[in-house]
Amino acid sequence: MRKTVDILGIPVDAITMKEAVDRVGAFVSKGGAHAIYTPNAEIMMAAQRDPELNEILKNADMLVADGAGVVLASKLLGRPVPEKVSGIDLVREIFKTYASTGLSCYLLGAKPGVAQEAADRIKAKYPGLVIAGVRDGYFTEQEEAEIINDIGRSSPDLLLVALGAPKQEKWIYKLLGRLNAKVCIGVGGTFDILSGRMRLCPDFFRRNGLEWLYRLCKEPRRARRMLDLPRFILRVLYARVTGR
Prior knowledge:
Layout: E1 4-7, E2 10-13, H1 17-30, E3 34-37, H2 41-49, H3 51-58, E4 62-63, H4 68-76, H5 87-98, E5 104-109, H6 114-125, E6 130-135, H7 141-154, E7 158-162, H8 167-175, E8 183-186, H9 190-194, H10 203-207, H11 211-218, H12 223-226, H13 228-242
Parallel strand pairs: 3-4, 3-8, 5-6, 5-7, 7-8
Antiparallel strand pairs: 1-2
């Protein structure tokens, strides 16, 4: 039975990394179409302002806590999730666990060239994994129709969508029934890391819940967006006090 934690009205799965990976395997075996999202504090706050995104997250087949802010929120509410399950770590664990089974994966998103570089590195590191297709995230409406058809023809077990939030979540939600992919995951900047173009946040920052500080130092332009983290925690504290 699915166990979730209600954080500001959004059901985040109380799940470990291993359980999340196992559930992906179950989704693939079961067939059908399943949507997985990996919200951090910014996305959770965006969902408070955007009813469409809020509804999308509520209807996910799995929603994992990507970020120290979401983990902290669950603790403040007295219903802690077991651990953080970040998008990049989830994707890597899926590859590691299921590559030997011939899992097929389609990569969609990021800047031109990035997804292909990521695919090349994935094939080198996980030789049993099948790359069903690759497409960057810059496309017209006409090209989108071609992409949908291409994904449909390839029928991947796993579709990774890296269009940035909330665009990727809305894209998956809108097209889930037409994509012919068993599992669709919104993965944000994962291709930048898998391609080697961007360095993963160092372990010290990740272990201590300071990813936000590392990103802020590397990308000062994110400062305004980073304000959503304290806003999110304050909103959670308010919900804890008032029960709303």
